[in-house]
Design goal:
Elements: E1 7-9, E2 14-16, E3 21-28, E4 33-39, E5 42-47, E6 51-58, E7 60-65, E8 71-74, E9 77-81, E10 86-91, E11 95-102
Antiparallel strand pairs: 1-3, 2-3, 3-4, 4-11, 5-10, 6-9, 6-11, 7-8, 7-10
GO molecular function: guanosine phosphorylase activity; purine-nucleoside phosphorylase activity; thymidine phosphorylase activity; uridine phosphorylase activity
Protein name: Pyrimidine/purine nucleoside phosphorylase
Pfam families: Ppnp
Length: 104
């Protein structure tokens, strides 16, 4: 899906790591939430409370889920982060992403 219809966009940005990672929250009529953002090159660690679908729309990064090996995405791809986990990212070029928060 390249665009969202009938959504609410939160104007205030989510800003992490001194502005190197930013996103905007998108709320859907059915109560689901996504964030759309940009990550600049760097090494990052995030924690989750809900299961997340990380859709990489463009860019180059390595990601590591807890207890797993490093994986690479070049261009576009998707990975899933279990709820209540920490994951690491090594961002090599500007990354455009969409994070979906899953309740299942």
């Amino acid at each position: 899906m390249s665009q969202f219809e009938n959504v609410t966009l939160i104007k205030e940005a989510n800003i992490y790591f001194d502005g190197k990672v930013t996103s905007r929250t998108v709320l859907f009529e059915d109560g689901t939430k996504r964030t759309l953002g940009i990550m600049l090159p760097g090494d990052y660690e995030f924690s989750t409370s809900l299961k997340e679908e990380m859709e990489i729309l463009a860019g180059n990064l390595d990601y590591k889920l807890a207890g797993e090996d490093w994986e690479t995405i070049e261009g576009s791809g998707v990975f899933y982060v279990p709820a209540n986990e920490t994951f690491q990212l090594k961002v090599h070029s500007v990354v455009d992403y969409c994070c979906s928060y899953l309740t299942e």
